[in-house]
From TrEMBL:
<dbReference type="Pfam" id="PF12390">
    <property type="entry name" value="Se-cys_synth_N"/>
</dbReference>
<dbReference type="InterPro" id="IPR004534">
    <property type="entry name" value="SelA_trans"/>
</dbReference>
<keyword id="KW-0808">Transferase</keyword>
<dbReference type="InterPro" id="IPR015421">
    <property type="entry name" value="PyrdxlP-dep_Trfase_major"/>
</dbReference>
<dbReference type="GO" id="GO:0001717">
    <property type="term" value="P:conversion of seryl-tRNAsec to selenocys-tRNAsec"/>
</dbReference>
<keyword id="KW-0711">Selenium</keyword>
<keyword id="KW-0963">Cytoplasm</keyword>
<protein>
    <recommendedName>
        <fullName>L-seryl-tRNA(Sec) selenium transferase</fullName>
        <ecNumber>2.9.1.1</ecNumber>
    </recommendedName>
</protein>
<comment type="function">
    <text>Converts seryl-tRNA(Sec) to selenocysteinyl-tRNA(Sec) required for selenoprotein biosynthesis.</text>
</comment>
<dbReference type="GO" id="GO:0001514">
    <property type="term" value="P:selenocysteine incorporation"/>
</dbReference>
<dbReference type="InterPro" id="IPR025862">
    <property type="entry name" value="SelA_trans_N_dom"/>
</dbReference>
<dbReference type="InterPro" id="IPR018319">
    <property type="entry name" value="SelA-like"/>
</dbReference>
<dbReference type="GO" id="GO:0004125">
    <property type="term" value="F:L-seryl-tRNA(Sec) selenium transferase activity"/>
</dbReference>
<keyword id="KW-0663">Pyridoxal phosphate</keyword>
<feature type="modified residue" description="N6-(pyridoxal phosphate)lysine">
    <location>
        <position position="284"/>
    </location>
</feature>
<feature type="domain" description="L-seryl-tRNA selenium transferase N-terminal">
    <location>
        <begin position="12"/>
        <end position="51"/>
    </location>
</feature>
<dbReference type="InterPro" id="IPR015424">
    <property type="entry name" value="PyrdxlP-dep_Trfase"/>
</dbReference>
Amino acid sequence: MAPDPNTATDPRRRIPRTDVLLADTRLGPARDRLGDDAVKRAVQFAQGQARAGAIDVERVLDAALAALPDAATTLRPVFNATGVVLHTNLGRAPLSSAAVEALVSAAGYVDVEFDIATGARARRGRGTLDALRAAVPAAGDVHVVNNGAAALVLVATALAADREILISRSEMVEIGDGFRIHELLCSTGARLREVGTTNRTHLRDYADAIGPKTGFILKVHPSNFRIEGFTASVGVAELATLRVPVIADIGSGLLRPDPRLPEEPDAATWLAAGATIVTASGDKLLGGPQAGLVLGDADTVTRLRRHPLARALRVDKLTLAALEATLRGPATPTAAFLAADDTTLHTRCAAVAEALESAGVPAEVVPSSGAVGGGAAPGQDLPGWAVRLPEHLAQVLRRGVPCVVTRVEKGHCLLDLRCIPATADATVQGAVIAAARTSEQPCT
Ligand SMILES: *Cc1c(COP(=O)(O)O)cnc(C)c1O
């Protein structure tokens, strides 16, 4: 029977007071790192445990330390063992260490809009814009906004408010989470004029639709689906003959052609073909931070940059820093994961599977088809390998520390190592062993 808390001998009356605990020097570093509120919550949690008799009163401070969150954010780092390189739910492109360093050092005061030599105001993010211009010499000028959708909104607002945007019926794309490009465009006050059919659109369909109200022709790369069979579409070069601005939304952020992704359009090629403006995302194939890239005709870019809406879509210094480092720096993790070598992947999977087997976890190396994901290269298979585990481990791995997100397929949990840095194989392997042990424990 629980002792009566009203008796003086009850140890629960000796639970240290909150102010005493908070003043303990052992909690000092946590206060600096996490803030007073988080530390106070951990202290109160530990006091509650002691009050409930779950821990000794002498252990309240230890319990408070153990209850502290790892970081001052609720965002949890996860290992992406899904095989999907640009997983929108997992934050799309993981940044290169160069980009991470750049954004950390930009976190304080920086000369983002300031000329150190003269002390005068300078063009915001000019280093990033220079890097982008250098990466795509075909672009007369460039601009950066918050994401690909923002780039489209800016273009539609500045160039087609109260006017018409011509778009093929085969390019009325839903980009995910219920967002549709044509609805986004209509929200700006522009009117969409659909041309052609779902499977076939010809140059004459566009030509017939052009009138005094035409703002521009929009070419949208169908980045997350493919139409096959009796199809026809009009390329940028042909559209550019119609003497109306052509805005080309490539989505993926590929700046130059990539022989490994032959069907993926790139900014340089579409600009050379005559696109007035190309829009793209920064956190897809480019492998950078979330951003919207606007590249093309210098006068048009100036119009976009000067439009009042541009201020509302302005990117943060952290984005500018990470984007510049992505453009100038070493190959990105995205590029490395896309190009992961088949033999190396197999060797890594085999080593992990063997270690798991000898720890008593059923594991087998199986072929695994990864994907580019995140609205890029929809038809492109990424053949690789995975470690096949019992299905129930998927949930345990997700809820564990570290969190490992796997792919569940046909009643199995697939641990695909493509998007896991090789240096983390042992950590992930340890997480699987821990997960298997946890799930063995009988329910109490
Ligand atoms: C992804 C994508 C967008 C939206 O870009 P965000 O950066 O996600 O806002 C727009 N158009 C196409 C073709 C895309 O693939």
